[in-house]
Amino acid sequence: MVRPTRETERKYEVPSSADLSWLPGLDRVKGVATVVASGTAELDAVYYDTADLRLFRAKATLRRRTGGADAGWHLKLPMTGDSREEIQSPLAADVPQPLLDLIRSRTRGAELTPLVRIRTDRAVWRLADAEDAVLAELAVDAVRAESLRTHAAPTAWREMEVELAGNETDPALLDAVEAGLREQGIARAQSPSKLARALEETGAASADDRDRSGGPGGSAGEQVLAYVREQLEALTAYDPAVRLDRPDAVHKMRVACRRLRSCLRSYRTVLNRDVTDPVRDELKWLAGELGAERDQEVLRERLTHGVGSLPRELVLGPVTARLQVWGVGHGDEAHRRTLDALGSPRYLTLLDTLAGFVEKPPLRAKAGEDADKVMAKAVLKEFHRLAGRMDTALSLPPGDERDAALHNARKAAKRVRYAAEAARGALGKPAKRLGRSVKAVQSVLGDHHDSVVARATLRELAVAAATAGESAFTWGLLYGREEPVAAARERQVHTAWESASKPALRKRLSK
Question: If DSSP codes are grouped into helix, strand and coil, which group holds residue 139?
Answer without folding.
Answer: strand
